[in-house]
TrEMBL record:
Localization of this protein: Cytoplasm
Function: Specifically catalyzes the N1-methylation of pseudouridine at position 54 (Psi54) in tRNAs.
Example GO BP: tRNA methylation
Protein encoded by which gene: trmY
Organism: Methanoplanus limicola DSM 2279
Domain of life: Archaea
Protein name: tRNA (pseudouridine(54)-N(1))-methyltransferase
Enzyme Commission number(s) of this protein: 2.1.1.257
Record family assignment: Belongs to the methyltransferase superfamily. TrmY family.
InterPro entries registered for this protein in UniProt: Alpha/beta_knot_MTases, TrmY, tRNA_m1G_MTases_N
SUPFAM superfamilies: alpha/beta knot
Gene Ontology cellular component list: cytoplasm
Keyword annotations: Cytoplasm, Methyltransferase, S-adenosyl-L-methionine, Transferase, tRNA processing
Length: 188
């Protein structure tokens, strides 16, 4: 199982946003929707061995975490609006500290980075980290930021985690995920 955690610093934590304006009124949810697609979609295949975690830190109820299980998910199509509408549904149901399923294979809970760091061993994807090509064993679990830098609080929580670079240029989060999965594919 590979896991990608993408931190959406302005992404909404209630379902009242418009699917017609994911980049604007929905706090750059478009970045997270493209990242979801990068985690799972190949041209004629679906990556069932990936889990995607979206950490949503925007108003009105932060933090919330959405988990999409590649093994279980249904109704997800390869366009931003499809992911956006499943996220909207997940943010429309009541949730507590434990994951609640909103649609098949999509779960939501209250809680943020600290909880996830207690549950999984992550590496941080960072263009200044160790080149992935110099790593012998591909890590399983990766953290990325959205279009913004990690905050100081996040930096202090992740400061001791290994930093891994996908290449010399700063990439979009969704492209970074594809690059890492491609590297993993090449080694299999
Ligand atoms: C668009 S970048 C973040 C914006 C960036 N901090 C800036 O404002 O210059 C999105 C995320 O993708 C990941 N990323 C981008 N390029 C990368 C690279 N070459 N290697 C590893 N991770 C990368 C990082 O996790 C980064 O936080």
């Amino acid at each position: 199982m590979r896991r990608f955690l993408i931190i959406g610093h302005k992404a909404p934590t209630a379902g009242e946003f418009s699917l017609n304006d994911l980049p604007g009124s929905a706090g750059r949810l478009d970045v997270l929707c493209r990242s979801v697609n990068s985690c799972f979609f190949l041209s004629h295949e679906f990556r069932r061995d990936v889990e995607c975690f979206l950490l949503l830190l925007g108003e009105p109820n932060p933090p919330k975490t959405i988990m999409i299980s590649g093994e279980e998910v249904r109704y997800l199509n390869p366009d931003e609006r499809s992911a956006g509408s499943l996220i909207k549904k997940a943010l429309s149901i009541p949730c507590g500290d434990k994951f609640t399923e909103s649609t098949k294979g999509i779960y939501v809970r209250k809680g943020g980075l600290k909880e996830l760091l207690d549950e999984y061993e992550f590496v941080v994807l960072d263009e200044n980290g160790t080149d992935i090509r110099d790593i012998t064993d591909m890590p399983d679990n990766y953290i990325l930021s959205d279009h913004m830098n990690f905050t100081e609080d996040e930096e202090s929580l992740i400061k001791d985690l290994p930093k891994i670079s996908a290449g010399p240029k700063v990439l979009h989060a969704d492209h970074t995920i594809i690059t890492i999965l491609n590297e993993s594919d090449r080694r299999e």
